[in-house]
């Protein structure tokens, strides 16, 4: 289907279902239950899930396929955000031109940075991209203030020209971002027996774009171009000996990956029209690295899972405080309850970064393939258990010849 | 002329910090071939060693002081540090005042222990893995160390003063024949520079003039052959890792009075130190030190108003700009060796 193999089609369909049903999946607990705080089904957070999913998919195209570890990808995210906000200021509040421009700007930016950085590989490439991103961040903070509005961040105001739209709404307010009249922040809440599900216009726009982005990524993974990129990862030297120049391929994928980041930045700005320099800081670049590795670099669905996982952690896990812990462990005797809570306290709430760091280390040490590899190992263990019951003959017929 | 000298001096203390961190990074890279993203965290832990010692020394108990009354006429309770009880009032006050220099002695064993535990417990398992994995796992470790410090010491910077003697500024210009008050320079920064020079000298002397250092240098050149000669090179490299951690820690201890320690200071320095290492040349110890000082001084030159008026914002990006130019024109850095990290 859609020119995909059988396995890819399955993954693609899973992603579509996950993305479209997210308001249900992320809202598993009824609104009045004690677990309701673990619901992540509100529009703002769901938008972040898919937007950072796009960012991570793009990063994975570069790192997962070619092995070039960029520590400066946030620069493209930031550039995309600024471009989108400028489009809202100058043209109109429609998100389509903003998103297109953010991709173009990030792409151009990536051509320049990539052309220079890709002359080196390994750690040098990481440092070069890091240096470029930090330069952009520092410049956005200081000299480029006329374009970026410095520390305050770029915002839309009432006296922006907006040639194709209105500077202000009829009642004198700042207009909101929309898609041909559909307001991004508009959402309807459906109450079904204690659950309340939010369906947001902004989220579904992001989800549809994420599905498209995912589809393109799958096609790149399976194309001859993707094969070439894998060849670069496994042995660039040998590629040179066969008379192929790897540079155009790496540059192409670097630009594509930068455009994904720009798209994510543009979407972030479309959901909430402001852009600040902190989006370009190297910690933001580090975050996308964490997402991709945690989910599984080089796999299709890994980055999406990783992005969702980290954003969920950041927003939900960080809300667990001592009160909640007391609620959970109230069944224990008092003394033991306090001991358990004292032990857990550093890891939850404000300490969620610690848990994340530990988890990241464990993944890098034991599961280089990320959560996806973990899932595959479990599946394999289960399958082995089953085939042992059914006899070896069936197992042999199941394994395709590689 | 005076402005130039002033900027060179201003660049030296930051340059010293860069040089020390880059030296440690290069030691680890040159011996073990590991790219250590947790090195900034070691610098930060060093600074918090100073904070910790200061807190230990100022541990106090309350004593009722009959001679002083509060506004109700009740005798006032005064905190008296234990060191005052043990060594007498004057000596106790001096010890507390000198807590930062004393922290040097305190931090060396702590940092070596942390370094050795890190190498034996974690890094050891990553020698055969790709560089990207090493970067990632040490990056994770840096986050963990940073969060542990944040948990115990909070997120706010903790002021850690230098001893009173060094608090003033030194009129450097008078020595060189300029008018007074033209080139003044805080004493502590001078101390920091001298200290950094001392450490750098000590590390080089250790590698150059001791048998242990000779073996380590041989191991850096050809690990396998040294191993075949029946020398336990792994153990020596572990000790070198501890030493590199100690160098980073000492840089942090002495930096505490210049910049109040906070939990993310390591990351801020780490990014720049990596740039310094790459500019100096991966695996070259003199290159790392040279690049550290050069970039520190360049950074302070770029923040001169005369230069900023011609090239606005140059002070923010000069280090990265230099790094990019160096990497593109001299791919091995200023003094890089052939064949290091070129695959």
From TrEMBL, chain A:
Q: What superkingdom heads the lineage?
A: Bacteria
Tell where it localizes.
Cell membrane
> What InterPro entries has UniProt attached to this entry?
ABC_transp_permease (IPR001851), LivM-like (IPR043428)
**Membrane topology type:** Multi-pass membrane protein
Give the transmembrane ranges.
Answer: 12-29, 49-71, 91-116, 123-144, 201-221, 248-268, 288-313, 325-348, 354-374
> What are the entry keywords?
Cell membrane, Membrane, Transmembrane, Transmembrane helix
Do the record's keywords include Transmembrane?
Answer: yes
Classification via CDD domains: TM_PBP1_LivM_like
User: What is the name of this protein?
Assistant: Branched-chain amino acid ABC transporter permease
The record lists the organism as Salipiger mangrovisoli
UniProtKB/TrEMBL annotation, chain B:
Q: Where are the transmembrane segments?
A: 16-35, 42-64, 102-123, 190-216, 237-258, 270-298, 310-328
Keyword vocabulary terms for this entry: Amino-acid transport, Cell membrane, Membrane, Transmembrane, Transmembrane helix, Transport
* Compartments where found: Cell membrane
Task: Report if keyword tRNA-binding is assigned.
Answer: no
Topology relative to the membrane:
Multi-pass membrane protein
Domain of life per record:
Bacteria
Q: Does the keyword Repeat apply?
A: no
Q: What CDD domains has UniProt attached to this entry? A: TM_PBP1_LivH_like
Chief place where the protein resides: membrane
By sequence similarity, the record places it as follows: Belongs to the binding-protein-dependent transport system permease family. LivHM subfamily.
Q: What is this protein called?
A: Branched-chain amino acid ABC transporter permease
